[in-house]
Amino acid sequence: MPVAAAETEASVQELVSRTPNQLAWVRFKRNKAGIVAGLVSLFFVVTAFAAPLITRLWHLDPETPYADQLNSYGMPKGGSAISWAHPLGIEPQAGRDVFAMLLYGSRISFTLAIVASVATIGFGLFMGTLVGFYRGWVDATVGRVIDFLLAFPTTFMIVALALPLTQRVEALHLGTGNTARIVVLIIFFVLFGWPGFARIIRSQVLSLRERDFVMAAQSLGASTRRILFRELMPNLLSPVIVFLSLTLPVYLSAEAVYSFLGVGVQPPATTWGIVLSDSINYWQQDPSYLLIPAAMLIVIVLALNVLGDAVRDALDPKADR
Q1: Nearest 5°: CA angle at 274, between 45 and 112?
Q2: pTM of the predicted model, to two decimals?
Q3: Over the stretch 201-243, which tens digit does the pLDDT of each residue have?
Q4: Closest C-alpha among 305, 225, 215, 249 to residue 34
């Protein structure tokens, strides 16, 4: 056999032997922007959850006021007081270290975004699979509920109902203060987030339920539970991964917006939204106090969105870019 033909046959055998996940990983590795975005996202997530270790190594504390770095007007000396000891400067008036504040604040932001994303996907996956498989009156009923939820002005509802629902959560002893506010935000994010994902899953299930492997399982007497959880859901992994990668930046930026508006996490806790809200009062005297957290938020949201696009292209290369 000629050498070229042998090499071609070996390449074909290697390609055929790869699983869909392996092929997706190969496509993802070719996307340089996706790799860079993934590394940037991983860096932010790791530093967020390693905040106690990093601040301990840097001898910093997010609650400690460094009054010696402030002038008589309560503003950082030299404009921002950025130095090796305080890499991102000092907070005006209070004198706290901005680097430590943002690290600890990102823990709250990422935790809320991850929990809300997982809960949204879990509930949307269950409901979408259910209505797509049963169809009929189940599909019609849930469809009307989805239409009803999608008709709500989400931002207005969250701003209007955040305070009374927070008080209700506190009355039920499910949390107090910022814990109750985080619980309320997660409830809102899940409530208004699952309908869109459920519709995506429903369309996928409507297609999958007509496939040979599902019909074979039904003919062999497989239970509905087995068909739903063993046959259908494993084949819905691709949209789940894509939706997760695209939902994280949405919830991350939404948390910052609602904290900025005063209906999310509030001081003395710190998030990027709280820092941005406070920094507006000092943007002329200390521009870095506004620009640094804004730039960090832009970078992480952009990185997560690029990563989501790369994951989508890797898992579904035939989709429109």
Answers
A1: 40
A2: 0.82
A3: 888 888 888 888 878 887 888 787 888 888 888 788 878 888 8
A4: 305
